[in-house]
Every structure is written in structure tokens, then in C-alpha cells.
Amino acid sequence: MTETLNVPASASTDPQPDPSGADAKPAKGRSLWTDAWQDLRRNPMFVISAVLIVLLLTMVAFPGWFTSASPTVGDLTHHYQGEPRYTHFFGEDWFGYDTQGRSVWARMVHGARASVLVGVLVTLSVTLVGGIVGLVAGYFGGWLDSVLSRITDIFQGIPFLLGAMVVLTTFTKSNLWVVIAALLFLGWTQIARVARGSVITVKQSDYVHAAKSLGASTVRIMFRHIVPNALAPVVVVATTALGGYIAAEATLSYLGIGLAAPAVSWGVDVSNGKDALRTAPHILISPAVMVSLTVLAFIMLGDAVRNALDPKSR
Amino acid sequence: MTLLEVRDLHVDFQTRDGVVKAVNGVNYSVEAGETLAVLGESGSGKSVTAQAVMGILDMPPGRIPKGEILFHGENMLTMSKEERRKIRGARIAMIFQDALSSLNPVLTVGYQLAEMFRVHQGLGRKEAKARSIELMERVKIPAAKARVNDYPHQFSGGMRQRIMIAMALALEPDLIIADEPTTALDVTVQAQVMALLADLQREYNMGLILITHDLGVVADVADKIAVMYAGRIVETAPVKELYRAPAHPYTKGLLESIPRLDRKGQELYAIQGLPPNMAKVPEGCAFHPRCPAARDICRTELPPLAEVDDARGSACHFWKETIDA
Amino acid sequence: MGRYVARRLLQMIPVFIGSTLLIFSMMYALPGDPVAALYGEKKPDPAQIAAIKHQLGMDLPLWHQYWNYLTGLFQGDFGTQIATQRPVAEVIEQAFPVTIRLTLFAFVFTVVVGVLLGMVSGLFADKAFDRIVLIFTLLLISIPSFVLGYLFQYLFAFQLDWLTPTVQDSRDIGQLMLPAIVLAALSLAYVTRLTRTSVAENLRADYIRTAIAKGLPRRRVVGVHLLRNSLIPVVTFLGTDIGALMAGAVVTEGIFNVHGVGNTIFEALNRREGSTVVGIATLIVIVYLVASLLVDLLYAVLDPRIRYD
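Predict the joint structure of the above. Result:
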């Protein structure tokens, strides 16, 4: 296989170069998307990530199913840095207590909300903003394209993490929406570039020329022909970026400029655990594992989606 | 001794849909100075056979379960990798269809030509370059000295194909395999490149295997023809006889689908249907679903390559009727 | 070539101005008054504050302040820290070499290990080694660097006692190893994947088939024909990555207590010390722009199909 890295075992042998006439043409009526879905379902990487993501979403929606302990109320006298009891499945002390006597497991469960919300909402908003900028720049071209591309360059010139830090410091009090806004502010450029390139490619295709010569309106061409056909690369980049946004939220919260109490965030928990790393490593490692697993799930999803959608990898 | 002889060659590919038998018992031979044209649609196994001869099949997924490829009487399939490598390029060379993608885009043509001398003959940089310029002049590239440091994309399609020919010719091999050498070129350039190839072949008395799907190209240059269909040779004959009286309905169909001046105004003939899916080759004669003369036996029994005369063979149950028609 | 460089330099100007203006105006919008903060708990005299602000040019409108800043930059003046009255250039001078060492270490590590791993797994695509590398890169991408930093610290310093948990002397390459590897991790994963993809794809290219048909030894096919073509996309990535590495130093330097640019900018952000942040951010933007220019030039060298006009 070519383009992508994780190749499902079933797809690893390519049809050979020469008996090209032998390759069965895909049956009529199968679009890129239904083909991609067929591919996805058979990809073990996708199955694993889907299971993890469903689990996470359940945690977000019904944290009470996983733990009854409070993530914010601790009992310093009894539980200060209490050791994990790895056999107490789903118990309050499953993963021990933190420096403020709070159940680490409860915080692991409740921390999912911030991560998933930030990841999903940033991805959606970034796709929308970047997609529109890319569509307009790519479709209309000319001076509009030049201006938009330069603006994209300007935002791209600021390193993502550094830029997000600067944006967040300008707010006295940070919360979920501020973090999302900061990540959107700097994150849209990547999608804009991909969308622009994709739109330009589609714009030059014969069916768009045909639609134009038949007198279709600009709006119709844009939304009937361009958007559906230019979507695949954008979806690929967006899914892959989702995991990155989750990591970014955790990093910013860890640095103390993202989410802060009373919000529960794994990044904050890692930061809280760092001073006790030598004596009570579970306080840091437990939320750290949660962040990593969550990012892993979405990165794997992104990889699987790319494998399925990228025509080059077929 | 025969220059090259392919005996009962079989090639398989492991794909995710199972084993595809791309070549099923192909026999052919080429003598020094002789031109064999291998004719067939894409997927007929003509290129795979050539790649097997050249030793550039991807293995795996490719596999050669059976057969011999004798070069000067020696079976190349049992040679060590290193022995085969030394034959490749030096004694058997190959010309590919699309010179633009077949030449390395980031290296100068001079470098790519000189590489042949440096690797196979151990020549120094300077000497190899001088020989490269000579080569470029021999394939009639104007201003060779000035252009030796240019990159492939800076040449026209015809000139690029000349460079491919020069590269194949560099070490004066005994055999050249040309895989659709003119398909990617403009019609006027096609004739020039073919003429050049034929001249050089005569000059060096090389064997030439010309792989093509274009009967028009074949008539002028080939001595004999092997027609392939679904991984088998279905007809083999000296070129004139094949044109005069084809002994297989497939060949006949191919000949009839060439536009001809004397049939101006008539509808052009086309073989009906599509080339077979190699994962599901039809039972019996693979050509029967498309054959206008197919009968019951064609659906069940695979026709062997029958001897028409000393120099001819046809894999059709009814070759006699075909040849007389 | 010369004209191409000149044109690219010209194109960089609006991007440079835009990026720095963006950061500058965000700092301008920072809440709190740094001059008033100088007085701590004391009630400051408004006239005195106004006088200091006037002296620092802080009473001017945004565009004017930015203009002063920009003209100052060309004379090597990155502004002044308000709290300490120290020139920011001096702060940078002290911290920058440390970060350069760290980033360079990480960069070299990324290139060497990433390209090597990517090459091998691309050459043996879908074999066991390739799959292991795939899982390895997946993990590297999934573990945020602050997590990886503490994991390494816990493992190599606290548990195995191989290394000091924090950097005492930033000139000691051995001590910089841990932070450099943590800093490099994400880029390493990307470079590995990119190289792997590129190698596996080019391996099926027609010109590789030609190279084999020419009877070249495998070393030569891979080393001369495959490698150069495969590195083109990797080089592009590496150019844009240098800026990201420097920004990533904020996290890594914090964990390992390296007194570089990252730590400085983080402390400055916490103290709402705008001039330092803008100064360092400007520097990183410059590094990013210069690196992408260099990459463009290198790209043209690697790929002769690129035209300069």
C-alpha cells in the first residue's frame, strides 16, 4: 500500500501492476463514501478506535454509570495521596486518591467531558471556518484568493501552541468556550489550505466545466458539484486533527492557562500530580493514561478514515 | 543456439481475491537479429511474461510456479540473484512505455545513462559521461553535449523515448524488450522512434521482443508474431502469413478492426465484449464469450496450441475453418 | 535563482508583519496594567504612571506603538521588560542559545531516527517491522509531550536512576538528551510516517522499475534512486517543523527545568509581561520564516522540476 501507514491485513496485497485488465471494476452505484465505509468496517484499527470512542462518549454522557464518587470533593484527612487498589473495580479508590483526597478514578471519568467536547467542537468549527475560507479562495481565485491565502500564511506563521497560549493569556478567566475559541483562532488554517487545494482540483474537472457550460448557477455549482467532491481530503485532515486538539486542550490545561477548577480536566490533574511524581506516581499517571488513550482512539480513527478515503491508498 | 527461449512459463499473483493466473504456459523464442512481436490487450499477460524474462516481477505477490526461461541455453530462473542482475541491463535490456515516468525525475539524463557504464563496466565519471554523450548522438538527440546535464522533464516525449532507447542500448545487449515503446507518443513521432529502433537492431544484430497492442506498428518491423489472450498464446505465425490468413478468430477480429483506406465508408469492425477478468477466466476457450464462431465444444474444452504448419500454431478448435474463411 | 530568493523574501514581509502585529495586538489587549503593577500594593500616583507610560511610549495608539517596535527591531531592539527595566534582547541573548541547543538536538534526532525508521519500514511495507513501527508512531503521536516528559522522568530518573530528573547544566549534551527526545517525539513520529509512506509509494514508481531493469545493485536503487525522491516531502515537513519544535520547548523546558526561551516565555505569560512574549514570539516567527525559505530553496535543489519563475 502507498499513502497511508496502517494498512489492514486484508488489504495488504495489492492487485499487481500488469494484469490490470483483470482488476474488477467497482460495481455501479458504489460511491467513494460507501466504498470507504466497506473499507472501514473491515479495518481492525477502526473497530478498536470505535469501541474506545463509544466508551468515552458514554463516560461523557453518563459519568454516573462508571463512578458514584465526586470528582471535586475530597477528604484530606482520610485519603491524602491514598494508594490505588487495582482490584477494587469501579470503586472510589480504584486508582487511589490525589493530593487533595479526591478519587482519581472519579476525576478520570469526569475529565472525559472536557476532552471530548473540546476535540469535537474545535474540529467542527475549524472545518466550518477553514472549509468556507478554502472554498471561497479556491473557487473564486484572483485577488480574493491572494488576500485569503496571505491571511492564512500569517496565521500559519504563528506556532500553534505558542499562539494558543498567547490568546488564552489575554483572557482573565478561561473556560471551555475560551479554550475552543483559542484553538479555532489558530487551527483553521490547516483545513483552509487543504480545502482550497481540493476545491481547485475539483474546479478544473470536466463535470464542473460541463455544469458551467450548461448554465448552472454559482451557488449550484459550489454546493452541488464542488463541495461534495472536494470533501474527502478535508474530512481526512479534520479527523486526524481531532486527536491533536484533545492533546492541545490537555497541554494548555496542564500549563495552567486552559481549563481550571471547577472544571475537571486531565491536563490539570497531570499538573497537580507532578510534584508528587516521586512518591505517588498514580496521581499523574492515571489521568495521563486517559489523555493518551483518548488521543490514541481519535488518531486511530483518523488513520482508518484516511486509509478508507484516500484514493491513492487503494 | 537460440538467443532466448521461454518454455511453458506460468506466472501467478496472490491478490486479496485469491490467486490470479496471469500467464499459463507460454512458449516463445527469439533468435539474434530477429524481431518477435507479442500482441495482446492489456491484461493478456504479455507484459508479465516480459517482466518475468527481465527478472523484474514483484515477487511476492508474483510467483513463477512452472517454466523455464533459457538465455543462450541457460535457465535464468535457477540463477542466483547476482548472476541475473549482471544480465539485466547489460545483456537483456528493456524499454518502457512511458519514458517520463520511467526516467528518474531528479537525476540528469547524463547521470542515468552514465550509470550503466559505471555500474556494469566500472568506468570513471568522466569516461562514462563521454560515452553517454556518444550514445545520445547515436540515437540522434540534437546538441547532445549541451543537453547531457538536462533533466528528463526538459525533453520532448520523442526525445525522452530516445533516451530510454539509448539507455537500453548502452552496453550493446543481445536482446531488447520493448514494452509498448511508442504508445505514449504522437503518431508522427511513433514512426521515427520505431524506425530508429529497427535500424539499431539491424546494426547490432540484436534480438527484439516488441510488446504491443497495436497491429499497425507490427507489420513493418516484426518477423514473427505471438498473439496472447488471457495468459496464453492463441496464435503464433510469421508476420506476413498472419496478416494474409489469420488462424484464430481473435487475431482475425484484431485485423478487421484496423481502419483501412480500401474500406472507407464502411463501419469499422470491433470485437464485441470486454477482455476477461483474470480472476474469473471463462471455462473452455477463454475467448468463447466474444467469439462469433463459438460452438458447444468451445465452452467446455480448452483448445491446445495446434500446429498449423512448421512455423505456425493456433489455439482454436476450428482453426482450419478460420484460416480458409 | 537570485530573483526567486528576492521574490520569496518580499513575500515574507507581509507574513512577518501580519504575524507579529497579531501577537503584538493581543499583548496590547492584555488585561491589567503592567506599569501600575510595578507599585505592588502601594497606591500609585497617576501622574507618575502617565509619565512612565509616556517614557515607554505606551500612551501612543496601537499602530504607533507597533511601528516603534518594528523600527526598533531593525536596530536589534526587542523592547524592554517593564518590571526589571531589562532589554528583552538581553533576556533572549541569555535564553536563546540554550533553546537552540535543545531544538537542534531534537531536530537531528528526529531526522536521523525518523528517516531511518521510515526508510526501513517503507522498504518492508506490511511486514512485521513495519507494523511495529506503525504502533510505535501511533503511541508517540497519542502521548502528549507533557505526559511523555513525566513518564520519562519517572522511568529514567526516579526508577532507573540513569539520568538527573532536571537539567542542571544546559551545556551538557548528556543532560539535554531526555528533554530533547521528549521534544522530538511527535516530529519523530510524523517524519517516520511521512518517510515510510513516501518510500513505499516511490518503490512502486516506474523509474524504480527502470533502475532495477538497468541491473543496478539494490544498494544503488535504494540509495540513489529511491532516497532522493522520497525525501522531498520529508524536507518540506521538517522546514515547517522547526518553529513548532521551538514552541514545543515551552512544555519540555518546563518539565526538565531548562532555562531557555520556552521557560522564559511561559514565565512571562504568567506575569503578563507583554514585551518579553512579543519579543520571543517575533524571534520564533523569524526562525519559522527563514526555515521555510531555506526549505523552499532546498526543495528546488532536490526536485529539478520546480521552476524558479
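The first strand of chain B starts at residue 4 and ends at 15.
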